[in-house]
Structures are given as structure tokens and as C-alpha cells.
Write a structure and sequence with these properties.
heterodimer; A: 338 residues; alpha/beta; 4-stranded antiparallel sheet; 12 strands; globular; B: 340 residues; Rossmann fold; 2 domains; 10 helices; 29% helix
Chain lengths: 338, 340
């Protein structure tokens, strides 16, 4: 396979609050390849959004990256560690929105209500290219057409509140693509949308990816969206990467008890009507009350007392590109319970 | 079709909202949020209302609870006393005794519980308001309700902030059950919850229905959850029911092109079944200015000239399966695979 365009190694982003430290992301590692979609999936508080924000260096205080590397391979072949750049320096500002585009969940709050969508697009284009105003406007219309906005030469002068949710999300994608990035990070891009609009937006992301060889990081809580879109998957729980692997392996041969339980508990349109769902006992712990050892152990059906609650399991390779962080696969190395 | 087992019967329900514009608030148009909606719910049955934002599903449920007053139509509630009451026409005072029998579960477990009240007070309040003034009796009932939703007794004197989303939703359900209602209106009760918690609440709703013989009107946009809870499903588009059928029939043999498109848009959690999607063009119809004829025709891939001019009526195609489509009898549409 080609060389990864982005390599994250042992990323740690902590929030150092007065009440204690929240380890929002605690040792995540993955590779992103050109033309591929990496899905990051997990429930609330798992650290999937903070991972994306760490890559772009837009983690809000009191959060900061306390360890790890985020190696970006640039178009000229040079490699830069984003984790080491000052978060408001020139270099990261050129990369953010330039080489890496970002689409958020809530298009209403991410677009300005005081500027037309055209002005926001033109600003983004001119920030990262040397186009004249007139040329940038033409380019903006092109971008709106590309993301499937009807009558783009009229809509360019509309304000975001005049557009429907689906159209706004298309504008967000146009904005993210304004500077022709090579990486697109989409954080819950369809969560606020209706299912038929979601289908349109996913289709759009897929076709743009094919046309431009974009590498996409897709962050979602929805296993259905992951199954539909991802090539590789990272499953996170309470800041930890618990399993990663090719999408088919994750869905058909999941290794980590959390992944297995999560997959069993998803409601499906293919289910027998009124059938009970498999459940995961308990609920996600509060970030200040993180369980000792493996963070999943209080809810885990395979909990091994004396092991899982004592030490954190290392990530163990299981198959081709497939790894899980679980004591089921490390027990021979675990300390014997006293 | 009404039998002794019917709890709720909605006939020709309409809710129009005026649009006011200009300096003097002139009448500038009408939003037909709910336009001629009819259905029944039997005792112990779950009917789901599904559709996309703005289709009128929530407005319908709010009319039934009389949180808002309908513009027209009848909402007949068959009370346990044997009396038939038209909820649509009652005044505020006459509504009060009825509210005991119809309760609601909200979407957001974080904003629907008073943060200054303990769990015992939250669940006990409907009892107190409805005349159970004896403290001991009330405490016993609250304890019983907590047990029903599988929450430990020890939680009685805690405040809502100490609970997770799933636990709060259980508290909301216990409060709704306090007065032994016959019908529960649940508007997106699990959509704000994480997947692993959502499954627990779905199962709890099924279990309570079996134990207590409750009827549910379940309002939701997530078709996967709907499949797990419903006996029957009604699909709404631009203020109208376009298809209503028993759950399995609606999912496997849909008869309306909108239902077909809606089903094909749901991502299936299996990468080996990356679906051939029907991607609908354009936007959901605007209920203040709906298209002529069949409201769905501008987005329908089966539309003919007739669909532009003629308004289809809801017609039965099979037992309990009704469709609002001029071409329902000639089209052969695809649903999801039959449950194994």
C-alpha cells in the first residue's frame, strides 16, 4: 500500500481541570492513506471528536496534547509533526483548511449568519490561494455546483439561514474543499440530518473522494454509517482505542468484547419486529470516575478479576491490520492474581 | 374500524399554522402541518409515526396530548370507564382527568427533569397533584415505580444531575407510569441516548408494555428503532400519512415510493450489504406551499403526469395495509430483506 498521508502515534490529549485530569484521548495510533476512509466510532466521551480536534490543533482549553506524534506527509514529500507546531502559528494555519479540510456536525453554528455563503467561500479560497476576487467568486460558484447546490450562481449570495439543513451541510463541504485539501475530516457530518438527506451527503462525500483521491477521517457514533463508508475502523471507548482493523473484520470478526457488545446492541431494520435487543450492562462512566485497569471492565461480559481491573491491556496484533487492546489476548503476560 | 380494544381513534385530524408577515402581521399563508390524518391504536399496541423533519409527526402527537389545539378533526379516547371522549373539543378543565390516562415521555432526559427536585419528588409529583396526599402511600407507590423501571431504591433522594442519560430516561418513564395511564406518547424517547444505553431503554419499553398492557404512540425518525418496538407503522410526508401497515409488511413490502426510498436510505450495519441506494433528489416538500397533486411527485421516480394533478387518497391494498399512491397497484417496490 502507498505511504500513509497522516500517521498518528500514541496521541494523548488531556483536559487539566481543577476537578482532576480528564484523559480525553489516551494513546491513539492510526494511519490514514490517500483515497481511503478511516472511520472512528464510539459513544459519547470516547474521545473521537477530541482526536479530530487534536489533529487540527483546535482543542479548547484546558485541553492540550501532552504526548504523541501527528505526522503529516505534505505534498512536497516533507513530513511535519502537527503535535509540535504552535497551535496559532502560521504553519498550522496554512494546513488547517488548506491541506486538511473540516466538516462539523452542526452547519448552522459553523457558518456565519452575517456573511453570505459566497463571501465565506471567497474568503476561504483567497486565504489559501492567490486568486483575484473575481476568480475566487467564479471558483466559489464552481465549488457550490460541485457539491450539488442547485442554481449556484444565485445561491452564492444567499445567507446560511436561507438554506435547508442539507444544503447548509453541502456549503460546509464546499468550504472544507475550498483550498483543495488532501485530507477531509468529517465529524458527525450527517448526525443532524434526516435519513434521506444523510444518504445524499454520504453519496457526495464518496463521489468527491473518488474524483480527488481524498483521504477521509469519518467520525461518527453510527455503526451503520461506518459500515457504509469506511475502509478501516478505529473503535474507541473512554479515550482508548480498543480495537482497529479493516471494516469487514470489525463487523464480521470483532475481537474486543466492547466492539462485539456494541454491534449486538444496534437496532437494525433487518431485525424481527418487536425483538429485544442485546444490551451492555451499566452505562458509560463519568470521565472523572474512570475505572482502573481496562476502562471497559465493569461492563465487560469477559471480565477477569485480578487482571482487567488491575492493569491496562496493551494493543495486541490479531490479524492482518487488526489489533485489539484486551486482556483476553494478553493473559499469558498478565500478572497472576494474588 | 373501532372495537372494544381500541384506545385511541384519530379521524381527519388537521392542524394549520398561520404565517404572519409584514408590518401589521397580515395573514401571509398557511402551514398545513397536519392535514387529514386518521389512525387507531388498540390496547397493548404500539403504533409508530415516522417521517423526516417537518412531516407533521410531532405536531400530530402534540395535538393528541392537547399541548396544542387542532384546527379540525376528532381525537376519540376510549377511557377505561367505557366512555368515549373527543379530546379535540375538551376545554382545559375537562382535560385534566383525561391527562392521567395519557402520558408522555420526552426526548431529552437532561432538560425534562427539574434539577431542584429529588427523584422521589419528581416521580411523586403527579401522584400528589392528582390527590394522593398521604406521604406513606405515595412513597410506597414511588418505590414500586422505581422497581418497575429497574432503578435501585437508594436513588430516591438523589437529584437528577447524579444520573446518566439512560437513568434519567428511566426516571421520566417512571413518572409517566405513576398514574397508570392507558396510552403513552413517546416522542423520540431514545434518540438522545448512546447506542449501548438505547438498547436498554427499548427493551424496557417492550417489557413494560407486556407487563402493564400499555399502548404506545411512538414518534421517531430512526427506522431501525421503530422496527424493534412497533406493531404497526405510519409513514408521514408533508403533513399526511402516505402509508400505514403492520411492521413487517411495511419494511419488507412497502407500497409507497417514499417508504421505499426512506428504507433504502437507512445505513445497514454490515459492510457486506452496502446498499444500492435510492437517493432522493431535492428537498422535503414545504408544507406551506405543497406541490400539486401527490405531495411527493417532484421527488418520485415513478411519477407520471397524473400524479401532478390528481390527489391520491389513502386506500387499502391488503388487510391493514393502506397506501396513498395513485400507482400503488401497479408498482412493485423493494423493501428490506425478510427477518430471518
Amino acid at each position: 500500500m502507498a505511504e500513509p498521508i497522516l500517521s498518528v502515534r500514541d496521541l494523548k490529549t488531556y483536559f487539566l481541570a481543577d476537578e482532576g485530569t480528564v484523559r480525553a484521548v489516551d494513546g491513539t495510533s492510526f494511519d490514514l492513506f490517500p483515497g481511503q476512509t478511516l472511520g472512528i466510532v464510539g459513544e459519547s466521551g470516547c474521545g473521537k471528536s477530541v482526536t479530530a480536534r487534536s489533529i487540527l490543533r483546535i482543542v479548547e482549553r484546558p485541553g492540550r496534547i501532552v504526548g504523541g506524534e501527528i505526522m503529516l506527509r505534505r505534498a512536497d514529500g516533507s513530513v511535519v509533526d502537527l503535535a509540535k507546531l504552535p497551535p496559532d502559528g502560521l504553519q498550522i494555519r496554512a494546513i488547517r483548511g488548506g491541506e486538511i479540510g473540516l466538516v462539523f456536525q452542526e452547519p448552522m453554528s459553523s457558518l456565519s449568519a452575517f456573511h453570505t455563503i459566497g463571501n465565506q467561500l471567497i474568503e476561504a479560497i483567497r486565504l489559501h490561494t492567490k486568486l483575484s476576487k473575481r476568480a475566487a467568486r467564479a471558483r466559489a460558484i464552481e465549488l457550490l455546483a460541485m457539491v450539488g447546490i442547485p442554481r449556484p450562481s444565485l445561491r452564492i449570495d444567499a445567507y446560511s439561514f436561507e438554506l435547508s439543513g442539507g444544503l447548509r451541510q453541502r456549503v460546509m463541504i464546499a468550504l472544507a474543499l475550498a483550498a483543495e485539501p488532501r485530507i477531509l475530516i468529517a465529524d458527525e457530518p450527517t448526525t443532524a440530518l434526516d435519513v434521506t438527506t444523510q444518504a445524499q451527503i454520504l453519496e457526495l462525500i464518496r463521489s468527491l473522494q473518488q474524483q480527488r483521491g481524498l483521504a477521509v477521517i469519518l467520525i461518527t457514533h453510527d455503526m451503520g454509517v461506518i459500515a457504509e463508508m469506511a475502509d478501516d475502523v478505529v473503535v474507541m471507548y473512554l479515550g482508548h482505542e480498543v480495537e482497529k482493523g479493516p471494516v469487514d473484520t470489525i463487523f464480521h470478526a470483532p475481537a474486543h468484547p466492547y466492539t462485539r457488545a456494541l454491534l449486538r446492541s444496534i437496532p437494525s431494520v433487518l431485525a424481527v419486529p418487536r425483538s429485544r435487543l442485546a444490551t451492555i450492562a451499566g452505562s458509560i462512566p463519568h470521565p472523572f470516575a474512570r475505572p482502573s485497569g481496562c476502562p471497559f471492565h465493569p461492563r465487560c461480559p469477559d471480565f477477569m478479576p485480578g487482571t482487567c481491573d488491575k492493569s491496562f491491556p496493551a494493543e495486541i496484533p490479531i490479524g492482518q491490520g487488526h489489533a485489539a487492546a484486551c486482556h483476553l489476548y494478553t493473559t499469558e503476560r498478565a500478572p497472576v492474581p494474588a | 374500524m373501532t372495537t372494544a380494544a381500541t384506545v385511541l381513534e384519530v379521524r381527519g385530524l388537521r392542524k394549520y399554522f398561520p404565517i404572519r408577515g409584514g408590518l401589521f402581521g397580515r395573514h401571509a399563508g398557511t402551514v398545513r402541518a397536519v392535514d387529514d390524518v386518521s389512525f387507531t391504536i388498540a390496547r397493548g399496541e404500539t403504533l409508530s409515526l415516522v417521517g423526516e423533519s417537518g412531516c407533521g409527526k410531532t405536531t400530530t402527537s402534540r395535538c393528541i396530548l392537547r399541548a396544542i389545539s387542532p384546527t379540525g378533526g376528532e381525537i376519540i379516547f376510549h377511557a377505561s370507564s367505557g366512555e368515549d371522549i373527543d379530546v379535540a373539543r375538551l376545554n382545559r378543565k375537562a382535560l385534566r382527568p383525561l391527562r392521567r390516562q395519557m402520558q408522555m415521555i420526552f426526548q431529552d432526559p437532561f432538560s425534562s427533569l427539574n434539577p431542584r427536585m429529588t427523584i422521589a419528588e419528581i416521580i411523586g409529583e403527579p401522584l400528589l397533584v392528582n390527590g394522593m396526599t398521604d406521604g406513606q402511600e405515595r412513597n410506597d407507590r414511588v418505590a414500586e415505580l422505581l422497581e418497575l423501571v429497574h432503578l435501585p431504591h437508594a436513588y430516591l433522594n438523589r437529584f437528577p444531575h447524579a444520573f446518566s442519560g439512560g437513568q434519567r430516561q428511566r426516571i421520566g418513564i417512571a413518572r409517566a407510569l405513576a398514574l397508570n395511564p392507558a396510552l403513552i406518547v413517546a416522542d423520540e424517547p431514545v434518540s438522545a441516548l448512546d447506542v449501548s444505553v438505547q438498547a436498554q431503554i427499548v427493551n424496557l419499553l417492550l417489557e413494560l408494555q407486556d407487563r402493564l398492557g400499555l399502548s404506545y404512540l411512538f414518534v421517531a425518525h430512526d427506522l431501525s428503532v421503530v422496527k424493534h418496538v412497533s406493531h404497526r407503522v405510519a409513514v408521514m410526508y408533508a403533513g399526511r400519512i402516505v402509508e400505514i401497515a403492520p411492521t413487517e409488511a411495511l419494511f419488507t413490502t412497502p407500497r409507497h415510493p417514499y417508504t421505499e426510498a426512506l428504507l433504502s436510505a437507512v445505513p445497514v450495519p454490515d459492510p457486506r450489504q452496502r446498499a444500492r441506494r435510492i437517493v432522493l433528489e431535492g428537498e422535503v416538500a414545504d408544507p406551506s406551499n405543497p406541490p400539486s397533486g401527490c405531495h411527493f411527485h417532484p421527488r418520485c421516480r415513478y411519477a407520471t403526469e397524473r400524479c401532478r394533478t390528481e390527489t391520491p387518497q389513502l386506500e387499502a391494498t391488503a388487510a391493514g395495509h393502506e397506501v396513498r399512491c395513485l400507482r400503488a397497484h401497479e408498482l412493485s417496490l423493494g423493501g428490506v430483506a425478510q427477518a430471518a
